[in-house]
Amino acid sequence: MKLIYSLVLSLLISTISIAQTEKSALFIGNSYTYVNDLPGIINDIAISKGNTFNHQSHTPGGSTLAQHASNSNVQTLLNSVEWDYVILQDQSQNPSFPPSQVANEVYPYAASLCDDIRQADTCSQPVFFMTWGRENGDAQNCEFYPPLCTYEGMQDRLTESYTEMAEDNNTLLAPVGIAWKSIRENHPNIDLYSSDGSHPSIHGSYLAACVFYSVMFNDSLINAFIPNTISFTDAVIIQETAYNSTLENEINFSQIPEAIANYEIIGDSLYFYNESQNYTSLNWIGISQNIISDAETLILNIADFTEMYEIDLMVSDGCIESTTTLQINNLALQYLETGISIFPNPSTGILNYKGEANLLKSVYVYNTLGVCVYKNNQLTTNSWNFSNLPEGIYSIEFTLKNTNKKHLNWVKKN
Questions:
Q1: Containing domain of residue 313, as a range?
Q2: Residue 88: burial class (beta carbons within 10 Å; 0-12, 13-18, 19+)
Q3: Which of 8, 154, 182, 231 is 20 to 30 A from 401 (CA-CA)?
């Protein structure tokens, strides 16, 4: 008799293993980074979450990406440590200027620095630090470019420029400016600016630190460090806003590997499919079943899965690993009373039925779109020729004379 299965529960768990316990970062920027010691606040957050954060900075006041790109000290720092992340922050006004000016005066140096970072260490991830618009816009340049006359106009241009830099260079983006705008709009009582209306207050620096921690550690901010001058209520708002800003898909342009897997049951076999992205190597790992395979599709016999098992798919680009877990709970095998089976499976077209013919009333065949491609309500044979069907997976529905329906999957190959 044919064995069938009863799937009690299946669960897909995905994790990208970039949230390690220790991270290192080099900050290349200016006073927006060193005021209130932004890297130091990130370090305090990391410690409070049980992690380690090693960092150095090159942040002369008012420095531009163009100046950093030609600075020998920057090159020395890039080659001094195998940095996990290198943060790039331009002078606060430059990326808000007209698009043509930014394209000529900012983008080439952003690209040059990204090249230098990757040349120093192929696994280092550049991160663009999207800054914030000035509290009341850029009065100094308002008459030359009207969008800069308001905070909103300046922020929109900063968001556009930093997003384009990250997209063009396949990097991470720390969307501090996006989180900043959200706080301004939804919680105006939280003052993110210092008295000059440009540099960050401790609240502003804490917001930036929370964004960076979320980006670099891929971790929530629950129970994270709070500076003693910030109330718990304000801190929770800042933490939630920062973390939510990093969840937007469009802000991560780096080609990080992502493990994606799926499975289905065909006949007596479990087919595990790799659907991952941005990887160079893969491994299926099943400790309980002693499975190690680098096949794109892993095929296992159902009879091997009578209890709870976990199959991990791990992919890597040589720097970052990502893992997803397929968890199978109680895939119990049972005997089908009617003894229906089909063979061969897969086949190139001929499909045979095995079972008690007097129990069978009709046969319907459905493709993966749910379209019925064959039906027969007057059975005179136990064999069919489906060689005209395209290659793919089909569901065969048998209707018995007692009106019960049984479904079996069949693979058509050319």
A1: 3-15+256-335
A2: buried
A3: 8
Q: Strand ranges (DSSP E) for 38-158?
A: 52-58, 85-88, 125-129
* Per-residue pLDDT tens over the stretch 336-356: 344 567 778 778 888 887 766
Measured between alpha carbons, how far is 311 from 300 in angstroms, rounded to an integer? 11
- More confident site: 398 or 390: 390
Give the bridge partners for 192, in sequence order.
none
Least confident range from 46-55, 112-121, 211-220, 327-336: namely 327-336
Of 222, 251, 280, the position where a domain reaches its end is: 251
Task: Tell me how far CA of residue 41 lies from CA of 18, 86, 216, 292, in angstroms.
Answer: 21, 17, 14, 42
- Provide the domain count of the chain: 3
Residue pair 172/165 in contact (Cβ under 8 Å)? The answer is no
Q: Which of 242, 246, 248, 247 is nearest to 226 (CA)?
A: 242
Q: How far apart are CA 401 and CA 277, in angstroms?
A: 47
Cis peptide before 344 (omega within 30 of 0): yes
DSSP state for residue 392 in the 8-state scheme: E
Tell whether 182 and 104 lie within a shared domain: yes
Amino acid at 70: S
Report the phi/psi class of residue 330: left, alpha or beta, with left for phi > 0 and alpha for psi in -120 to 50.
Answer: left
pLDDT for 186 equals 97
372-374-375 Cα angle (round to 5): 95
Residues 194, 82 within the same domain? yes
Residue 168 shares a structural domain with residue 244: yes
The phi and psi torsions of 88 (rounded to 5 degrees) equal -115, 120
Q: CB under 8 Å to 250, separation ≥6 — which residues? A: 163
Q: Which helix (H) or strand (E) holds 210?
A: helix 202-217
322 shares its domain with 368: no
Statement to judge: residues 73 and 222 lie in one domain: yes
Q: In 10 A of CB 414, how many CB atoms?
A: 9
